[in-house]
Specification:
eight-stranded antiparallel β-sheet, five-stranded antiparallel β-sheet, 481 residues, globular, alpha+beta
């Protein structure tokens, strides 16, 4: 492989030199691959979605099995190496990679098996959302997953998970039946409500802190295969009217209807009339997954707004709805987001929202409101570490730009300023999976709220040395309040 010592970042931040013999020892213990810079597959393995969060590990292990993962975890622990895990590589903060660290790239563990009778899917951690949606929809089934098909199932699930089906079936982790996980001591465990219940509780919202998950088991529901939805948009001049109608629609909607609101500049896409290219619009992305013979009545309040600039609402396969926005947030762009959960849309918030969208200097930015509530609130707040059961909306200032965009250096500051304006409307909670590159660690605590103290206790039990720290970290050393 190499005759030289390789320097990796250690757990204490200093460098750890690995000899060729030590690397050969690791290689001999795994069936998967061990990659160094320049090896075939290296560039793809270290690519993450947010170009602004790009980092370079020193070494990549591509495990093929839980046994491989256990060997790599044992190696990292024995040599006190900074260890990171890459699922789909879509974390906004780029937490799949630590600079000069040892990275586990799970992309070679991408199998799924669906048991339609038991309504369960067993999913390996390298799967993307599209893999699971396709496999489950072949049986007319689905679990709660997000709306961009290239996102990784692992990261999304381990932070809680939300999507168009959350109002019917809760957070993604409310649909998690069990996991197989390699914990810091190298043991391969199964965790569920009955086995290692404390571990399973913590995994449901803070999973990246507890180990490397090597298999997820999801509960499935009858969905589709056809649903009704897509994008509909109006001129920004009608923003206040649309926002207020949106509040009424989302308050009265059945759980089968989810409508997300987003204000942005229309792209020069073929489905947008040319006169509107680059103009601000106020749009809703809609998914109705109920009985299709009810769709006209359910969507009537949206249609009643009249005169849309774009109307792509149509019956379509669920898998299509789950991927139609993929191209809108391309890999390698620079992204900087700030988000908060909200329990209601007050008049003051709606006025602020319109003002922020009107003033935003970032050409490709989005001011978005995700529609939650429904089944998310059916569970107790301490049913899993995920919490935030009072979230009926997620508010987001979503900054994105090409790496060479003029004036980009000032864009994160604008997003932070916007966040200060809408933060007063927050429940106090925010979604851990939407946290950005330079988040204050106090925001991790805010995410978990009253569940945080219990989470620290579980982390201290299963990962007392904080081996799993390249994430939104819950440190075992956090003092009790
Ligand atoms: C364009 C876009 C759209 C999104 N849409 C949604 C959405 O609709 N709903 C939603 O809920 N979220 C959404 N998200 C947020 C998404 O859930 C997070 O970015 C998530 O972290 C992505 O997971 P990943 O596996 O792709 O990320 P990675 O960057 O690969 O990993 C994220 C974190 O998970 C840890 N991790 C990964 N695999 C494992 C494993 N096997 N075991 C233990 N830890 C692991 C990593 O260490 C890392 O800290 C979206 C993100 C983007 C960029």
């Amino acid at each position: 492989m190499t005759s030289e010592i390789i320097d990796l970042t250690g757990l204490d931040g200093g460098l750890v030199g690995l000899t060729p013999a030590q690397l050969n020892d690791l290689k001999a213990r795994i069936d998967g691959s061990l990659l160094r810079p320049g090896d075939a597959g290296w560039d793809e393995a270290v690519l993450v979605w947010n170009g602004m969060a790009a980092k370079t590990p020193a070494l990549v292990v591509q495990p093929m099995s839980a046994r491989d993962v256990a060997a790599a975890v044992g190696f990292a622990r024995a040599h006190r190496l900074l260890l990171s895990i890459k699922g789909g590589g879509h974390n906004i903060g780029g937490t799949a990679i630590a600079e000069r660290g040892l990275m586990l790239d799970m992309s070679r563990m991408r199998e799924i098996s669906v048991d339609p009778e038991a309504r369960l899917a067993h999913v390996e951690p390298g799967c993307l959302l599209q893999d699971v949606d396709r496999a489950t929809q072949a049986h007319g089934l689905a679990t709660v997953l997000g709306f961009m098909s290239e996102v990784g199932v692992a990261g999304l699930t381990l932070g809680g998970g939300l999507g168009y089906l959350s109002r019917r079936f809760g957070w993604t982790v409310d649909n998690l039946e069990a996991v197989e996980i390699v914990t810091a001591d190298g043991t391969i465990r199964t965790a569920s409500r009955d086995k290692h219940a404390d571990l399973f509780w913590a995994i449901r919202g803070a999973g990246a802190n507890l180990g490397v998950v090597t298999r997820f088991t999801f509960r499935l529901h009858a969905v589709g295969p056809n649903v009704y939805g897509g994008l509909i948009a109006w001129p920004f001049a009608r923003a206040q009217e649309i926002l207020r109608a949106y509040r009424t629609i989302t308050t009265e909607a059945p759980r089968e209807l989810t409508a997300w609101l987003v204000m942005f500049r229309a792209p020069p896409a073929p489905f947008v009339p040319e006169a509107w290219h680059g103009q601000r619009i106020c749009a809703m992305s809609v998914c109705y997954s109920g009985a299709l013979d009810q769709v006209d009545a359910v969507l009537a309040p949206i249609r009643a707004l009249g005169d849309p600039v774009v109307d792509l609402l149509a019956e379509q396969p669920y898998t299509e709805l789950q991927s139609y926005l993929d191209a809108s947030e391309p890999k390698g762009h620079h992204y900087y987001w700030k988000t908060e959960y909200a329990a209601e849309l007050s008049d003051a918030l709606l006025v602020t929202w319109q003002a922020l969208a009107a003033a935003c200097p970032i050409p490709e930015a989005e001011m978005g409101i995700l529609h939650l509530g429904g089944a998310v609130g059916d569970h107790d707040d301490d049913d899993g570490a995920v919490g935030n059961r009072d979230a009926r909306y997620a508010l987001g200032a979503i900054g994105m730009w090409a790496p060479d965009e003029p004036g980009a250096a000032a864009f994160p500051q604008w997003i932070r300023g916007a966040w200060q304006r809408f933060r007063p409307f927050s429940t106090g909670g925010n979604y851990i999976n939407f946290q950005t590159t330079d988040e204050d660690p106090a925001r991790v605590q805010a995410t978990y709220g009253a569940n945080f103290v219990r989470l620290v206790a579980v982390k201290s039990k299963y990962d007392p040395d904080n081996l799993f720290r390249v994430n939104r970290n819950v440190s075992p050393a956090t003092p009790a309040p």
